[in-house]
Design a protein that fits this description.
The relative contact order is 0.19. The chain is α+β, with helices and mostly antiparallel strands. The chain has helices at residues 20-31, 60-63, 66-71, 73-77, 84-100, and strands at 2-6, 9-13, 37-42, 47-52.
């Protein structure tokens, strides 16, 4: 998965987002970042762009995700139906981490 992050903007790009369940789960998580945000799904590039007001978000939320993403790194290299459950588990862990901070 390709992740580009600067405060106020996150772009996630991967073919796994073409899977409806994975994409909808990721979009629901992104929707919980804060109330003042814009989320754009680009089907052509398989990317999710989230722009938000950085001054209204605790950046520690995002720093806490690194160990979770690292844990699933190998599963994220190439999406297949076989690793879909692992990806959904990772998304559940990310959602939990974001709501805990």
């Amino acid at each position: 998965m390709d992740v580009n992050y600067i405060p106020g903007r996150i772009r996630l790009r991967d073919k796994m987002f073409r899977d409806d369940e994975i994409r909808n789960t990721a979009l629901a998580i992104a929707n919980g970042i804060n109330a003042d945000q814009e989320i754009v799904w680009n089907e052509k590039t398989s990317s999710i762009l989230v722009t938000y007001n950085a001054s209204k978000v605790d950046e520690e939320k995002f720093k806490s995700l690194s160990p979770i993403i690292e844990k699933y790194k190998m599963k994220l290299l190439v999406y297949s139906e076989r690793n879909k459950a692992s990806i959904l588990n990772m998304l559940a862990e990310i959602k939990s981490a974001l709501t805990e901070v």
